[in-house]
Amino acid sequence: MTVASMLFSCSMHVGVSNPKMSSKASACCLLNRPWPSCGQVGVSEKSKLLCRAGALQVESAPLFSVGQKFQFDDVIEAQQFDRETLGAIFEVARSMENIRGNSPGSQMLKGYLMATLFYEPSTRTRLSFESAMKRLGGDVLTTENAREFSSAAKGETLEDTIRTVEGYSDIIVLRHFESGAARRAAATANIPVINAGDGPGQHPSQALLDVYTIEREIGKLDGIKVGLVGDLANGRTVRSLAYLLAKYRDVKLYFVSPNVVKMKDDIKEYLTSKGVEWEESSDLMEVASKCDVVYQTRIQKERFGEKLNLYEEARGKYIVNQDVLKVMQNHAVVMHPLPKLDEIEADVDNDPRAAYFRQAKNGLYIRMALLKVLLLGW
User: Fold this and answer.
1) Parallel/antiparallel/unpaired status of strands 333-335 and 293-296
2) What is the DSSP string of 189-234?
3) What is the pLDDT of residue 121?
4) Cα 270 to Cα 97: distance, rounded to the nearest angstrom
5) Residue 206: closest CA among 87, 122, 301, 305
6) How far apart are CA 356 and CA 339, in angstroms?
7) What residues act catalytically?
8) Domain named Aspartate/ornithine carbamoyltransferase Asp/Orn-binding: which ranges (predicted)?
9) What is the pTM of this model?
10) CA 168 to CA 115: how far, in whole Å?
């Protein structure tokens, strides 16, 4: 068992202050009561950690102290995270894979309420967040079509909705059709807000689960080549993923898309500023033969408005099929944020390199980890 896993296990039995009223007003790390089992350890401490639950001595310190407050009040964009924080979140996520039914930790969020406010349709994201909360013993307040069936339909502002809902819950998961909506919500709320997708902006929890999946499937994050395929202009998943992959060394990104949905300049400029190599290509077969990951995305009809001629121009141009699989390396994988339509042929599902359903399952563990660290700390 790693140090972080052991400490995570210990922390299941520790009461940590709820940040609902204080997290955004204070950077302090507080515990409701003293921890009788383990002494707190500084982030940079190099000496041995002594955990007195069994007088077990461990050689190295964890990335973050148990009970220490998560350094972010909200999860709004991928740029928030550095490598150290990503590694710590992934360690917690790995521990979450062991939580089932009445296993230790399955009640760690008992008494907490999560509100899911979804102004756009969602299946995987909403259900995985709700499943994550319930697997940790918490409860859920949900609306799956807030744009149409909430007070927003009466003209209520997002800010007023957030001010109201935070009175009912301990954390808000928001999906919205406007880029920047999550940042507005976070600026209003006194409880944590998680961005579950804001229009064509970002989807940070998806990017976290994507990077987590790549590490588990490929075995590394440094030195990889990733092909981003499909709707790169409107795809919040690929935008967030590009930001996170920029944290790793010797990564190269290939952009493969129809001309009408090419990757926007802000991402290209960010990657260049971070020394990340990127290349645009129109040849999916060539890119697939080089890459460790082919990350396919759906052409998003809903983002085209009345310009359906442009949608038809983009649709069906790049499809992952058996021909693409034949040129891919044996260790490489195909990923997709789902839902997928005709951009991946059905028989690809049977290939062991099709990782997208495993990817979706990993979303549960990442979201369990985010809820844990936002509400209880490390």
Assistant:
1) parallel
2) -SS-EEEEEETTS--HHHHHHHHHHHHHHHS-STT-EEEEES-TTT
3) 78
4) 34
5) 122
6) 10
7) 124-125, 154, 175, 203
8) 222-373
9) 0.81
10) 8
